[in-house]
Amino acid sequence: PLAPKAPAAPGAPPAPGGLSLDWTEHKDPVTGKTYYYNKLTKETTWDKPASMAPPKPLAPALPGGLPPNWEEHKDPSSGKTFYYNKVTKE
């Protein structure tokens, strides 16, 4: 792009995992520099949008490797591992 445009409108809410589905990453063919394009607002920017930043961890892992209140279990019929949050019942 020649120059980033000012935002035209707020983008869509971030998708699960924190990444907005509206932003895509591209390379300027002349400079090779990375830029970002929002297909909803038609905005371009050289700076990575905050909605594309990796999500922050929910909670620090305990020495066992799981966040607080999460438990690891094995399904007795399949033998597959699953995780259960005893507070949120997820």
Task: For the record, give the distance between the C-alpha atoms at the N and C termini, rounded to a whole number.
Answer: 45 Å
Low-confidence segments, given as residue ranges, are 6-19
Shape: elongated
Largest sheet report: 3 strands, antiparallel
Helical segment tally?
A: 0
Q: Averaging pLDDT over every residue, what do you get?
A: 75
Helical proportion, percent range: under 10%
Task: Give the amount of beta strand, in percent.
Answer: 15-25%
Spatial extent as radius of gyration: 20 Å
Q: Tell me how many strands there are.
A: 5
What topology, given as strand order, has the largest sheet? Answer: 1-2-3
Main structural class: mainly beta
Helix and strand run: EEEEE
Describe the structure in your own words:
This protein has 90 residues and is mainly β. The chain is built from no helices and five strands. It has strands at 23-27, 34-38, 44-45, 70-74, 81-85. The strands form two sheets. Strands 1-2-3 form a three-stranded antiparallel beta sheet, with no helix packed on it. The protein has a two-stranded antiparallel ribbon with strand order 4-5. The chain is elongated. The termini are far apart.
Q: Would you summarize the structure shown here?
A:
With 90 residues, the chain is an all-beta fold. The chain has strands at 23-27, 34-38, 44-45, 70-74, 81-85.
List the helices and strands and how they pair.
Blueprint: E1 23-27, E2 34-38, E3 44-45, E4 70-74, E5 81-85
Antiparallel strand pairs: 1-2, 2-3, 4-5
